[in-house]
Amino acid sequence: MTPMLVRHHPHPASAPRSTDAPGRARDWAEIQERMLVPLYEAVYEHLEVGTGTRLLGLGCGSGLALLMAAARGAQVTGVDTDQARVDLARERLLPDPGATQGGGRRTSGPTLQTKLLYGGPDEAAADTTRPAYNLVTAFQPIGCTAGDADGLVPTLTAAVRLAERGSAVVLAGWGPPERCATSGVLRVAGRLTERLRTGGGWRPALRDDLEEVAGRAGLHPDGSGRVACPFGYADTDSAVRGLLSTGLFDAAVEASDLATVEKEITEALHPHIRQDGTVWMPNVFRYLVARIP
After folding, report:
1. Phi and psi of 225, rounded to 5°?
2. Rounded to whole angstroms, how far apart are CA atoms 44 and 54?
3. pLDDT number for residue 234
4. CA–CA separation, 99 vs 258, rounded Å?
5. 270: helix, coil or strand?
6. Are 289 and 170 in contact (CB under 8 A)?
7. Where are the domains of the chain?
8. CA–CA gap between residue 148 and residue 205 (Å, rounded)
9. What dotted CATH number matches 11-181+201-230+283-291?
10. Which tens digits make up the pLDDT trace of 103-130?
11. Any alpha helices (H) in the chain, and if so which ranges?
């Protein structure tokens, strides 16, 4: 893409801020991120991601989705405005170039094909040596936080300037609340923010959330799918840490305090605790494939 450089660093394309950013990024990478693996796999299978794919991942987080695409042979670039998550992604995808394997041979793999950048699409645009992308992904699910789509639209608009015409742009969102057990836990954020008249709380996902965002970014819908992404945790503590790492409770923490939010999440998790102490919440996520005209 030959881009106009306009600085956009909206938080919906990234993990929201945290006072303990490294700790929460680690919780995301070690606990929560894997919950979306079925979504990544379904999208990559649907679009036949492989050696001819040049992927730009918006809000790439700690890089698991990029790693899966690189394993299929794709050339990947990831951008995120959460520095702690980008640092973890670099550990995952860009190992020490001096590292060696058993026989003293330098490691290879996705390293030469991978770029991980702190910021947004404009940082990716600065790499004029890289050919235009033919796939853009925004896997951070939208549709359950008030206003979460607003910041994504300018990010997408900037990103599509870096891609070839006809390229696929993938958006992800939460499914209907009645098919997402986690919705009951996310309502904690809504209750706390409503009580204190602050914004950013939970709202039910709407049927056309993804289509609306695509339309505002000038994209043409070209198919969609639904994927089961159950959230499973070893125990309640892991569940609370994993859910907090998503950033979906940030407004609730600001409206009250962390201890209150942790307590209310724990109480909301009770119906989902199994006899062995594990936590299991079935969910359905939706993805939309749109095309750049």
Report:
1. -160, 165
2. 12
3. 98
4. 40
5. helix
6. yes
7. 11-181+201-230+283-291
8. 11
9. 3.40.50.150
10. 433 444 555 579 999 999 999 999 888 8
11. 21-27, 37-46, 64-71, 83-93, 121-125, 152-160, 183-195, 209-216, 236-245, 250-255, 258-269
